[in-house]
Amino acid sequence: MIEIFTGYFGSGKTEIALNRAVSLTAAGQRVHVVDLDIVKPYFRSREARAFLAEAGVDLIMPNGDWEDADLPVVSPRVLGALTSAEGEVLIDVGGDAAGALALAAFAPILHKRGYRMFLVINPYRPFAGDAAGLQALRLEIEHASQLRIDGIVSNPNLGEKTEWEDLLAGYAQVNAMARGLDLPVLMTGVTERWAERLERELAERAGWSQGERPAGPRQRVRNYLLPPWESEEGQVNRIGPPFH
């Protein structure tokens, strides 16, 4: 199965894809990350290429002079990964119609091989709270990519400032958004700081309402990416050992 992650800029879709790749690799699976994000010049999977290589994740991206281009440059390796790569294939794609166009060329292959496309929602980012805007985004992505969005990744966070109350309120907000879109929440992101507490609360607390309970499997999220203006060498770099 191929997994595709899309969403508004700032939703955390790339962080979700990177963390999922590292988690699957740590569990013994072979993982390929395809960077098809042509929309933004930073916060892309390729910015963590050195770390991904160290973690054992195969990153497929534009090569050489084109690797930092904000252009629709697609490596020939993408076709090979989508048709015959063994293991898990995760695709990080731009979060609007222009970004989704990069997927359209591969739509027949994806339909044949099988895929799931996730819309990553962070309710604390601009535009995410606008139900009409989310529905318009969904339709734009589906039309441009010629693929369907299967469900939501709930990813409420404020980076390192995320508090426990932010997490719980955010899950409830995304659950409501998912109902409005008539899409299931298929995965829940949890900031690494609160991951263990969430598991304890889910095991011990019986009073979770359906509207507030985080749905689907949970993915711990460590922030691997920093904007260039916050890193020492002008390049995104927050590297640490993968968690288990």
UniProtKB/TrEMBL annotation:
One GO molecular-function entry: hydrolase activity
Superkingdom of origin organism: Bacteria
Entry keyword annotation includes Hydrolase: yes
Keywords tagged on the record: Hydrolase
InterPro entries from the UniProt entry: P-loop_NTPase (IPR027417)
This protein's name: P-loop containing nucleoside triphosphate hydrolase
Originating organism: Acididesulfobacillus acetoxydans
